[in-house]
Amino acid sequence: xxxxxxxxxxxxxxxxxxxxxxASAQCIDSIDRTWDPANGSPVFTIEGRYTAQGWTxxxxxxxxxxxLLQFDGTDDRRFVDLGRRQTWEKMAPHVTHIGxxxxxxxxxxxxxxxRRLMLEGRIPHDAAELAMYELALKCSGAVQAARWTxxxxxxxFIHSFNGPHxxxxxxxxxxxxxxxxxxxxxxxxxxNDLAICLLDRLVQxxxxxxxxxxYYGEGRDAYDxxxxxxxxxxFNTKDGRYRxxxxxxxxxxxxxxxxxxxxxMLGYPELLEYLAILPEDxxxxxxxxxxxxxxxxxxxxxxxDFFIENVPTDGVPYWDSGAPRLVLLGEYTxxxxxxxxxxxxxxxxxxxxxxxxxxxxxxxxxxRGDASAGSVYFQAGLTVLRTLLDDPYLSTSPEHxxxxxxSVYHRPRGWDHIPEGHDIPCGESCLWGDYHLLESALCVQxxxxxxxxxxxxGPGGR
Length: 462
Known about the structure:
With 462 residues, the chain is mostly helical. The protein is 45% helix and 6% strand. Among the domains are: 1-34 and 311-454, no CATH class; 156-168 and 192-302, no CATH class. The strands form 4 sheets. Strands 5-8-9 form a 3-stranded antiparallel β-sheet, with helices on one face. Strands 1-2 form a two-stranded antiparallel ribbon. The longest helix is centred in the middle third of the chain and has 22 residues, at 289-310.
């Protein structure tokens, strides 16, 4: 169980965050110097060097978005120039990519960050350039929303690249693409010019995910533990009925793949922050703001509670809560994580994503008047982030292109590198782990310095 430090403050982490920016600059520069775009997008490291792994192109936004976050955290202009140039040159295909559920990863990390930085006054305001970013974001949200499977209850969901039967828990954070497009006044046009509200689709997808991928300890099946998350939900595409849980990257449908858990932990609190800026009449067709917020808050708190209760004391989880050899580690949640344990790998990327979810949920609850519960989650997020900013998780070696060590991509398929002399993957990094460590640290740095709070939708109105 996570041992929460209730005395830790955002300011306490600033020296470690400063060291992280120094290490990150080396990593971003090294990748930029050596990466051949002909190889596709870098995904994870092998012996400290980033390599591609064909499945879907979901990580390129993290590659260029990391440079934008580096500028945001350090004011080093060359990084925003790098991220901006690479976004302009290479990200356009991702805006109209009809084959993936990953628009919120690729396009919010690039076009979205550039828009936010411009609106915050961090980079020069250019009306034409801003219009280009916003057009890209509108298109991205509409394309993502068009990847739609209708369900028997009259709702629906954005289906994964696995096919129209498949609802991934990951996609909860890609809803940012629909959210920002709706905020910009956009809508999707269907057959016969049918206008489709992007907020409606966002809420419907969030509801299906909350109902099918998140468990609440209410006896849904023999393994219904509150806060457990199924990576994938399977639907009958003939009649739209839910059939069963499944997984692609977890150990089983009835255990919790911890990076999937982390996407739920972060996705819902971030959406709750977004809903708070919308006018009341946006919810007229959705049963009211309160109904939607209660649904999201229930999913977020259940997932965050499961994380806190089922991770080692330092907050870095093993890759799946039911991984088969965890039993050989004994009471592994009563001590810090051990990435070199020899039985089952940890996944630091799940911690980097999850800690930001804890921070945001804490702020959401505090803003809603529950400061006591809010403080618990916020302090939990700070505690996990402190772990990631230190040994053995933060890489400071100039020879290693990764920033956050000991991540796992796809354990069932055996894609992750096992170093010589070890029995499990360890010592390697992935782009989403590096990116989310930067994003989580930037969020805390801004809080510590009383700077504008970091959101994907940024300042300003419609």
